[in-house]
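Project standup — Tuesday

K.O.: blocked on the structure for the chain from last sprint. Re-posting the sequence here as requested.
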Amino acid sequence: VQLVESGGGLVQAGGSLRLSCAASGFTVRVYAIAWFRQAPGKEREAVSCITSDGRSDYTASVKGRFTISSEDAKNTVYLQMNTLEPDDTAVYYCTARGASNCRRDSRQYFYWGQGTQVTVSS
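H.V.: unblocked you, prediction finished:
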């Protein structure tokens, strides 16, 4: 199982980025896929998750701004991030937990990507 994130970068507040998580070794529609983020000095927090049947979940601070989706043909999960804020600055990780439903506890996830840096300037 391998997860590879891409799409991070530096953006001004109010801007947008789309993160990609390319999976190999399993089909994304089988497992729940989540995005977590970790800012310097802070704990890793759940951002969004999509279940195997396409239901999505978001942490309160990103609802209405971020959208998670999956593309079967590319076996990839995306996180579209709009109206970015400086507080969104973090390393974003893609992860799978080997089950079909979502959890917000990072200890429930067993497969992790290497992370991609998102920096939002004010």
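K.O.: great, moving the ticket to review. The two ends are 37 Å apart (CA to CA). The longest strand covers residues 17-24.
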